Amino acid sequence: GLYDGRIRLPVEEDADADIFEATLLHEVTHAVLHRAGFHLPTWLGEGLAQWVEGKDVLHARRRLQDAARAGQLPSASALREQWVTWSDQSRVQHAYDFALSLTVWIREDYGQQVLRNMLIALQENDLKVVSQRLLGLRFEVLEQRHRDWLEEMVE
User: Fold this and answer.
1) Are 2 and 8 contacting, i.e. CB atoms less than 8 angstroms apart?
2) If DSSP codes are grouped into helix, strand and coil, which group holds residue 64?
3) pTM for the full model?
4) I need a surface site. Which of 3, 22, 68, 140 has the fewest CB within 10 A?
5) Are the C-beta atoms of residues 34 and 3 closer than 8 Å to each other?
6) Which residues of the chain have pLDDT under 50?
7) How many angstroms from the chain centroid is the CA of residue 125?
8) What's the CA gap between 139 and 146, in Å, rounded?
9) CA 98 – CA 41 distance, rounded (Å)
């Protein structure tokens, strides 16, 4: 699926209904966030969309553990890029997995209200300001703590 101002879904006669529903939820999440005026970092928009669709964060974290073992966790700068331009599907999968894991990790460690407050605050501030104000950390530190947490699970 794709949201580019319109929700675009592949429709096939023999498509799995559960996959179609999950994809629809994912793209509707993007549409709602966009229509509400939220301008989110790629990782947060994708992390929220996957969370809403019901993506399995434990499965994503297992793939990330494998990526960490191979030294292939996505870089912090890569997570701020537009992933639709990437051709390496493994790299794309790692970025989506990292986004989901980080989004859920923030919720687990700081609470769901923090995610809600982040959305609201990001309408008027950049991620650096929002992270410092709501979490008491520079975003780079927060992201590195999550990365370290993932890598510790590998050891």
Assistant:
1) yes
2) helix
3) 0.88
4) 140
5) yes
6) none
7) 19
8) 11
9) 13
